[in-house]
Amino acid sequence: MSSKEGASSEEEEEEMGSPNGTRLSPETPAADDPAPYVGQGFPTHDAAYEFYSGFAKQCGFSIRRHRTEGKDGVGKGLTRRYFVCHRAGNSPAKPFCDGTRPQRNRRSSRCGCQAYMRIGRSAGAGAPEWRVTGFSNHHNHQLLGQDQVLFLPAYRVISGADKDRILMFAKSGISVQQMMRIMELEKCVEPGKLPFTEKDVRNLIQSFRKFDQEESIDLIKMCRKFKEKDPNFKYEFTKDANNCLESIAWSFASSVQSYEMFGDVVVYDTTLRVTALDMLLGIWVGLNNHGMPCFFGGVLLREENLNSFVWALKVFLNFMNRKVPQTILTDENMYLKEAIAKELPATKHALCIWLITARFPSWFDAVLGERYNDWKNEFYRLYNMENTIEFDLGWSDMVNCYGLHGNRHIASLFASKTHWALPYLRGQFSAGLLASPVASMSINAFIQRFLSAQTHLAHFIDQVAVVVDYKDQAREQQTMQQNLQNITLKTSAPMEGHAAAVLTPYAFSKLQDEFVVASQYASFHLEGNVFLVRHHTKTDGGFRVTWSQREGLFSCSCQMFEFSGILCRHALRVLLTLNYFQIPDNYLPARWRRTQPSPSKSLNGAHCDESPETGRVKALQSMVSALVTEASKSNEQMDIATQEVSALLSRIRQQPVFVHVSCDSVHKQR
């Protein structure tokens, strides 16, 4: 070695740490995890690398090969090698971006760490070929714990057997999330403890996929073919610079009609991927008046970024004639949140609680152990609280009780509480999706059915149509008819019979639950048009119900009607106190009625027959309809109804009849 090279090596030795003055960080492993030492021998430089890598993993960092040195001349062989911490050195300056190529703005992990191990080739006969000639374990950064170090790129490895299994799953149309869960169960490891991540799996699938232009054009052809059969079918797509499909969205004619009636609340699910296409599958879905999911539209996106989500939302609104939903429910996604704020500024954005709670086992099961179920019950208790102050205080107590200070999932949940916690969302209409486990489970089960469409990729759009029952609604109609026959009145209040005749069985069952318990509440008339309503066993507290006699409007501090479109027990109790025999039309929303109303006539074109008498006739018809429904359930009930109605008809016929002058008569007299 030349004197110049020797001087250079000595300078680097001084820079990276002297072997005689090795400085160990406080995180040095215990004695049973031996550290490298000067003079330690290895048969090959690869063996030295493997030993140092194992030591690094125990400490909480990873290593990389840094530099090699050899003898003067060509082909003389290596004499020294350097292995350094993965955070050694500094990130090189990025070249100036001229705008022709997008530049990734990713922060480098390098911070000039000085930890290293140097090995040199041994010249002695019979001795190990390589020996440690320098070592320093001094780090200028925090080392990772064993639950985090396995996610460093150096330790994320997919074995050959796992690769084969992943590719088999991909061909079967199984999502990456499901693949991870299956392999966790097969390997008996805790959630999140596999030696690779979801991103690694997606990269592997992408590397084995030859996704060419012909396959992407097939999706467009599918949509064109479907539009030939149904001219009202809608679709839009974009292509990238290589003329490959970038995104495609579609909606059926029946979906647009459903959205017109039930598009006040939309669930936009983005948790599925079509693995065979390596595209995110987005689904817009809602809840109809019978409490059943209804499909609004679908989208496939190549990239999961802001531009893609903005495009998807714009296209969806175009499909739906620019009608904006009141509330949109999604999974937590930074790009999607920003896109909604940009394209739907007047829409309330909330998070699907069922998607949040589905992650609880992987987040908290290992942390809480036997206390996990108790914690989950406490979470749901807080979730259903009435006001935000009690929620915040209860959350603080929960964190203290279960020792969850510093838990990143708890911190994230509390930071986003205004998007998922009921106390913060009670005044926002959600069709009950945020508070009804049955409805949310129905929506989630409906979305999971779309996984079956992946197994028939050549007919993907047709398969989606089958999933949403686009071609056959017979089963849904049969379910509705069954529900109509199963209605049973539980109180003697005329309002209940009126509601049963107007609302769908699904909506009526929700209202009936409130009717039944309303009789257990007392109402107290306060000043003006304000009532205090509370349970008969309580001596304080309660809810304030305000009644505007002139407008016929009610409002309750519990905000149940604003949240679900169903009147609460407190308002019903006041209606009974005020001798109402029908629920005002304002509180029987069109979206929950059996039949959707026809477009209302303008005031200028109103006819004389649109009078208060018309409303009374319709109310009587509704009561008769409810009577027939109840009487048809058994022969005994039919006999009673027939006998009572016959007696009633006899009494009515005996009453004197006063002539009602019609509009036509008035005009003729003029």
Strand arrangement, major sheet? 6-7-10-9-8-11-12
Structural class: alpha+beta
Terminal CA distance: 125 Å
Low-confidence stretches: 1-32, 211-217, 470-474, 598-611, 658-670
Per DSSP E runs of 2 or more residues, the count of β-strands stands at 16
Write down the Rg.
35 Å
User: Could you give a short account of the major beta sheet?
Assistant: 7 strands, mixed
Name the average pLDDT: 79
Percentage of residues in strands:
15-25%
Q: How many helical stretches? A: 25
Fraction of residues in helix: 40-55%
What is the general shape? elongated
Short description:
The chain is of the alpha+beta class. Helix content is 42%, strand content 15%.
How does this structure look, described?
The longest helix is centred in the last third of the chain and has 20 residues, at 612-631. The protein starts with a helix and ends with a helix. It is of the alpha+beta class and 670 residues long. The chain has a 7-stranded mixed beta sheet with strand order 6-7-10-9-8-11-12, with helices on both faces. Strands 1-5-4-3-2 form a 5-stranded antiparallel beta sheet, with helices on one face.
Set out the fold topology.
Layout: H1 3-16, E1 41-42, H2 45-59, E2 63-70, E3 78-85, E4 116-121, E5 130-136, H3 146-149, H4 160-171, H5 176-187, H6 198-208, H7 213-229, E6 234-239, E7 245-251, H8 253-262, E8 265-274, E9 279-287, E10 293-301, H9 306-319, E11 327-330, H10 334-343, E12 348-351, H11 353-357, H12 360-368, H13 372-383, H14 388-401, H15 408-415, H16 437-448, H17 460-467, H18 474-485, H19 494-502, H20 505-518, E13 521-525, E14 530-535, E15 543-548, E16 553-556, H21 560-564, H22 569-577, H23 612-631, H24 635-654, H25 663-669
Parallel strand pairs: 8-11, 11-12
Antiparallel strand pairs: 1-5, 2-3, 3-4, 4-5, 6-7, 7-10, 8-9, 9-10, 13-14, 14-15, 15-16
Helix pairs in contact: 4-6, 9-10, 13-14, 19-20, 19-23, 20-22, 23-24
